[in-house]
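Protocol step 6 of 9: fold each sequence in the batch and record its structure tokens directly after the sequence line. For illustration, a two-sequence batch is reproduced in full.

Sequence one:
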Amino acid sequence: MNIYKKIGFKPADILLPENIDMTKWSVVACDQYTSQPEYWESVKNFVDENPSTLNMVFPELYLSNDNSQRIEKINNAMTACIESGILKEYKNAFIYCVRELGEGKIRKGIIGAVDLECYDYTPTSDKLIRATEGTVIERIPPRVQIRKDAPLELPHIMLLIDDAKQNIIENINTENLTMLYDFDLMENSGHIKGFLIDNNEIICEKLEKLLDNQGEKPLLFAVGDGNHSLATAKTCWENLKDSLSEEEKENHPARYALVEIVNIHDSSMIFEPIHRIVFNAGNIIEEFLKAEPSSFIGEGKGQQIKVVYNGKIETITIENPSHTLEVGTLQKFLDKYVKENNATVDYIHGDDVVVSLAKKEDTVGFILPGMDKSDLFTAIKNDGVLPRKTFSIGEAFEKRFYLECRKIK
């Protein structure tokens, strides 16, 4: 077995634009600011008529029952971008990405391609690449519609490795590397630099060593961000591969997905909780207290969740919760409540956003505590995937921006 197949990760033929305004080209992940249309309107006004990934992705804010017209525009924009000649291809490449997030935080990662044959998002998976949280199957089909005819992929997927010695990513020396990009990201989202890695073999050998040290049923990559995008890529590959010969399956571009790998022990990797905001909330607080009989409003011993409504912030304490994590206790209740009460729920980054949104009539926010990132790999190995939307890596503006491209047709 060659090393790429063994570790499920390899260099990719990466496309980057040349001679354009990169700040306008690069936009944040499509699953951010889903309750803040003013953010995406600001981005649209800023980009104007300039080349931009905004025209090649589908912000989830705009997803509806009929997405066909927008998808057609996305595919046309991708084709136009390819034909315009602004994209330069870097063959068989890893890119070293350095993201300045502000307040002295710097996140480092390596961009390459993962083998979708080594990934499985089902809760009982023992593949090299696994989901960290529950995958909502209903979210995949509309994303498949977007990807299945697209000539390009633009990733916001981030995979985590458990390299406690920080020997793979953090010690890369950029002094003699070719810089590929260096610019400010829009909407006060920090600064980013990218370098062409000059020794792909060393990276792969170090990942192989990390893999070999894990023993039986190793977990090399855990999905930190973009699991539904990776699940979509996997679904598209499964739908396609049966029509291919064995030889075609080996190297077809759709078998792979472009990602950034980041070390969970990187000092910038701060796990932020993902909060809940419920619209058309009704008597949700009273119903939650009934669903968890040992719960009450006030401080006490047990799980604690802050609830925001009518200009107030209070604490719900659950003494004998139904789940080991606060997010699990709440999500189990919410999944049932929204179905039975015509309510809707959104997933929010940042306490201040929850407080702001909860000022609306018939709206209730739930602010959750975070989890210790050092427990992640052990928890997945022992228990499988965590409850849906358990954590987020940083605030919304810190999410991965669309920047690099790769042909998938």
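Sequence two, same batch, same settings:
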Amino acid sequence: MITRDGYAALALITLATGATAQSARASDISSFAPHRAVYELTMGDSNAGSGVTGVSGRMVYELNGSGCSGYTQNMRFVTIMTNQDGADTVSDLRNSSWEEADAKKLTFSSTQYQNDQLADSSQGDALRSKGATPVVGVDLVKPAKKRVSLPTDIYFPMQHASTLVQAAKSGVKMFTANLYDGSEKGEKYYLTNTIIGPKFKTGVAASVGSFKGADKLATVDSWPMTISYFDAGKDHEDLTPSYELSFRYFENGVTSDLKIDYGEFSIKGELKELTLLEPAKCPAKDTH
């Protein structure tokens, strides 16, 4: 099965300020910057009863496409987790997805290996149907052919990311959404609650880090965010989240200062290298 760090990696997605959900929701995907980011993974906090004494690894994330053609995400998330007996477990998650620019379709594929053995895989398409009564359905190919129905207010990953940027720019401090990314055999979605902090300084006063390519972010707006993931269908106010993701989120879609918190232990992801890629070209508009 996919480990909890694998689920959280796949996620790398009600307003409480008086604004309506419709006013902050982005119907289309914003223009993010295609890029390749390399992160070093290390152990964060750990409780005595967690059974985890060490974590090391690497995550490579690549975003390609454009706001008109849609975006492709490719990620590889490899961790070596050491338990209290000194035994290591190597987890290798490989994930790929494409999301249509208007967020009407999501195609996803995910494969998980543990100690070089195939542990799990999922593949399918999620589609918003047209008509007076919208329907969001998922046609799964792996692990088995199956049809899954989702709530009509579901967010896909890039759509959710775009909405968070719009919310942050509008001064929204908290945003709640149902999020689907094809994880957990493609049959599950999460209720997410995002807390958005004050915008970081830019320009001369900016401090974005010392990683390769950091200079490209000095003038890009960014905010600290924490996303809590809850099992859908339950009142999140009465529950502990399944896990939380904390990070610095830049307006162009780059993420730094990652932390995945599982309660008993956490994993930190330090951005080591950022490379901006050429965006896909949009078709020329017909002026005739």
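Proceed to step 7 once all outputs are recorded. Observation for sequence two: The two ends are 55 Å apart (CA to CA).
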